[in-house]
């Protein structure tokens, strides 16, 4: 293909930008690697030059991150063709972080032959606006000025290694500037610091408890059982619970605060005629019953119940006109006595000579940490002040020694804590230390590494301070020697025991607040702990902040409606938050695959080399350079979680969620959704003197869900206006005062009120109006939504990038929290289920959707002066789609806004219907299944929006998503139904003829249950069994997604037995059941989108006809009959059987042998060319053109393509060999 023909193709109006980018990149990089002729053609042709310049600048360079995948030759060519100053604008405006920027510029610098490009970057005025960017350019100019000549024996550095090297040089430049600053001020400079000096935290300033208060951001709260401290409130004898509050000061110092005096308590209604004088007797009887109930009393506790007092409270569950009543507040010595005491009182006790009396109990099932935080007004990750003269500082020379590794350790009475709301200046975030690490193990051939046999050979570490761009610690611990890595510290050890001991010391020295990585909870940490135990490294398992507490592993199974059933390991790291990124992504995002490679590509558009565990051993057993390659691979695996956390704002978003909901940060990572609402509800309850009952779990009948208006299916070429209710369910709860405290449960309560004092919901439940009592849930929701509105307004005004991220995280947390309140009331297996509230909310929602339809279709008609009769074609939960019969998007938007205002006026505030978007055109397939071009402004569509269609579903193979997506693009964007039909038919033909790459046929499903819990046999479960027999270590576990393809088998074979591992299929040439994919994967989704267009003929056009008649089936190497059959040689030309094994062609084809040979050579050349292109692409991905490809990433389509062409190439070479070394022509 000539250069000009490529350009003509690229600028053709029917080619999408995405396709242009991809086609141009592949073509240009391939051509540049072969010859300079196309480049000369471009440069000499004045007509094509401006077009090429436009394409490169505005089509191919956005986003800049994509350039990191380009070769240096291509970048050099881009730099030659385009205007350098325009490039500067693009890079500065679009680069979202400094890492991308300087990595990209480093590659530009390597691509250039002179300093012109860099000098223009440096001279550009925009650099002066950003000190970091200016520093980057300065470093690159210094690099260029050195003009180091590359020696023949120098190895090529990968892109990632370039980034590490640039980080190192930037640090040196920054350090040099700091030294210059110190010299100018005359301060002393200590040049004797060791290489590891920066591991430790900055030393704390001297603290005087009499004059200095201690202020810190708390990160985690737990409690332990210890001895009371004289002078503190609470129990003074025996053992007591002591709260531990871990945090970080603004100066970066780690702090532990022991909080004394807070004791667990709960409530029961006071018996009739109960007096204050009866409290002592009641305490004595309950205490005796509780002591007798204990199975063992090793601590020799004599006073389990410490106090009983009368308080005035009100049950939150149900409205009572009488208001507050006497309750007994019962204080016990340890939190473990709360459920035990509650159970005894529910079952009944005899007190004061009376008959057996039972008591409903309140707040026995609320976590002790949550009660403490509510009573002290502490919320997750907020700032706390310990005032001067109110605390004891624990020092090594003092009366009480520190028990932790924190730099500052103190003890204080719980009543003396000052908690700050996270608003304004107190919304800041301390310089929290985040450690990301990754380990590599040397497994045996065919066996996944086991800690009792296989050594840990490398541990890579990256440490960053929250708010900073780059890790300030980058190192790798290696077993045996390793070549140096510029930009990273290499620490080599001759013994594994010494390496593990030093790494544990490194953790304790660095003292991270947050520990992250990928699957560290279920692999890295357990493996390290088990390996250290096997090697008897006794100092290793003390990785938390408490000196004498061992880090141990426990098994747990987490089950939730959202995440299914998951098998997890639990590791205690007191004072450190475990932030396993895999767990975060599984919880928060629905992805097809959760491997680090897959998620890195999905979120960062960046791939990594994925080395199989068996190859890692070979690299380790090689030399310094092979171990260096492994170390770089390990370092990148430690770096990627940090990049993902920054990209997804994980730390900020989770901190803001902890602040909004009032729970410890660790709760968000290890517990379900309900605890967040419990915390908020308890805060309001305490404020209004309500108590929360301990509910018994009872599974009742399901209630009717949200309304879905029956869709008027079809393809709409007119603009469709979409009207959405803002925060529908929270708005309903606020508008109608729906709450536990406003629910009328009894006829007596109803008869005490006037009919105007309460409402009856559409589900026949009764609630009092705001004028009688305002509900707590509406109060919580009002606070959340008003706080979100404020955060969004502040976000618009804020200019500081970091503060903007905090505010964005805050408004998102507030939105999620508001929407979760309704779900909490409907969770039947929960802390406080209330069917009356949840079914009333959905009933109001159904009524409102139906009323909206009625209002729109009555008002917007021709009789009222409108051009057409409006028709609501679909309504779903909180939105309606309206066809006003208009022809332009602008008109549809204007009428949509008018209709939203009109409908909103018919509902009680704060319920609000607003216009959100227009779909044009719009394909309505069924309930919750539709697609359309999404317009928020009339000029151009924002995106193609799909709901419930296979483009966004994970339970189909990628072929389905790609096919449906392309067909939708042709239908909605190109408006070409014929082109869409032809494309679908061609894809089906390719599938049946085995022309579809196997990567497109891989289906992934999650193992959500144990084997016995599946009602029927499942394909992915059966495959997991077979994989476990082949290699137990690498087989999928509970919670993993299992990739598989469906293979051909006899007609009577059950579908679940036809699943197979894609790699196993490729290696053994097992045929794919293409008909299965057509019938079970493609046909239904395809017919769904084409039936509204083609009607009843859709099936006959798409699934029948000439394109379905040709089928190609490959011959398997394995199977039941292969052991009993002998494969005979066939003629390469006509495929007839040959008499002799050493011949290539039969007698009939002998005259055409040379022609056949040339044809087979052409096939061989095509395979070689394809293999070379794929190999080069993989080399670019791994960052080096001079090293063997070891990557085995199953999430990368190129991997399967490379495997397939590698096999095809081998088979074709065997065919060529059959012709002999010399052919007698």
TrEMBL record:
Location (main, coarse): nucleus
SMART domains, alphabetized: POLBc
UniProt subcellular location: Nucleus
Domain C4-type zinc-finger of DNA polymerase delta: 1131-1202
Positions of the DNA-directed DNA polymerase family B exonuclease domain: 361-599
DNA-directed DNA polymerase family B multifunctional domain location: 663-1093
EC numbers, comma separated: 2.7.7.7
Catalytic activity: DNA(n) + a 2'-deoxyribonucleoside 5'-triphosphate = DNA(n+1) + diphosphate
Required cofactor(s): [4Fe-4S] cluster
GO biological process, one term: base-excision repair, gap-filling
Region annotation Disordered: where it falls in the sequence: 181-210
Keywords tagged on the record: 4Fe-4S, DNA replication, DNA-binding, DNA-directed DNA polymerase, Exonuclease, Hydrolase, Iron, Iron-sulfur, Metal-binding, Nuclease, Nucleotidyltransferase, Nucleus, Transferase, Zinc, Zinc-finger
GO-annotated cellular components: delta DNA polymerase complex
Family: Belongs to the DNA polymerase type-B family.
Name this polypeptide is given: DNA polymerase
Organism: Trichonephila inaurata madagascariensis
Gene name of the record: DNApol-delta
